[in-house]
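Notebook entry, structure prediction.
Reason for the run: the old model in the group folder had no record of what sequence produced it. Starting over properly, with the input documented here first.
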Amino acid sequence: MIRKVLVANRGEIAVRVLRTCRELGLETVAVYSEADRDSLHVRYADEAYCIGPPPARESYLRADRIIEAAQEAGAQAVHPGYGFLAESAAFARACAEAGLVFVGPRPETLELMGDKVAARRVARRLGIPVLPGTEQALDDRALLLAADRIGYPVMLKAAAGGGGKGIRVARSREELEAAIPLARQEAKSAFGDDALYLERQVEQARHIEVQILADGRGHVVHLGERECSIQRRHQKLVEEAPSRALTPDLRKRLCRAAVLLMRAVRYVGAGTVEFLLAPDGRFYFIEVNPRLQVEHTVTEAVTGVDIVKEQLRIAAGRELRYRQWDIQPRGWAIECRILAEDPARDFAPSTGRILRLREPGGPGVRVDSGICEGMTVTPYYDSLLAKLIAWGETRGVAIVRMRRALDEYQIVGVTTNLDLHRALLDSPRFFGGQVHTRFLEEEPITPPPPEDDEVLAAALTAVLADWRRRAGSCREETPSRWRLLGRWEQMVT
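New structure, fully documented this time:
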């Protein structure tokens, strides 16, 4: 029986999981690095444990320290969120050996789906279309020979990873020769494995993914599709559900293929099957992400299903509450990833103290945030600060609401991509849904430069906050009544 959950992550996804745990009446445990001591997820949890110095390899990637914290706190389950150890079969196995429930797929499933080449073989065996490519990871010379056989352009991909890491597109043999060492270095850094394979590059492709839920009793359902075609350097920026590119028949075939694949590998938990959609309407399997996705929020918005809640129920051994006919998507949802990056400086990471924060609200607007005023954004982790989600009865209403919400959003102290999102939503091609995975490369969106009064206001805010801090007038935050109540309940029970 799960009564207490440790969340082995940070930032907005840690807060997201903690919130659902609280709704379920579960006690919560946060872990944090020394750089995250004052972070929002630490403040929100019932208990929190420091697991190491700021670098992720010495803290959030230390499975042994996370398991020690879970045992010390008396937690029964560990939720990995996404990133870090979420797709680590070794971590899932170590949790099981320590008597902890890993909120995710079985270790053997993580091993199979973590090998992208093996996942392609499974899809091909089931008759699911797969892009022409190599059937195994290859050395440098073999990659060059395979590319000559497949034909350019080709996409070089990390066999052990996902999330856009270790990917390079080559349009000639010379470009491929230059890309191989860079891709190997990035793959080794991100996944600890520099194995690479090739796929044929599809021009003008759209990125479509299908959300799956599966319990341990053989029940598998899909929650429809999401489109994630707005990307920069293979990193998703804007996602929406459903996809404007799918006809009812194509949607049915795509979702049926996703369910077939997940049922074949005896998948348990929440996961995503990703596809490329070519301009001629043909789709191709890419990979399975055996974890919660950043963009799960848009699926929640159109289906009303709390995916994190279902993850926890499935991990506790419960039967899936939904059958396929229960899932009836309604309306349209769009998500914008709010990043601490400067579009004017080639998207260089931005760090600093958040001096002012005003988050949007109103009908159909949701903010999943990992930041608060006074918090410092450090250079150690991913630049994702928050996710802004807008829902509407139609795509047009969702766009209007998102544009209004972006105008309301204020973050002072670090540079963000808010202006880029505002400019993107003003693009006629985005309005028309005429997008693909290289959209931002072929039609760069340039946000307007900040007005002089905005720069002056930001500077004055920074100076005032610094003066107050030096004068000692900044008071410590009053502990939440909920946190005090949680402490009291622990003492008396």
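Summary: The radius of gyration is 23 Å.
The old model has been moved to the deprecated folder.
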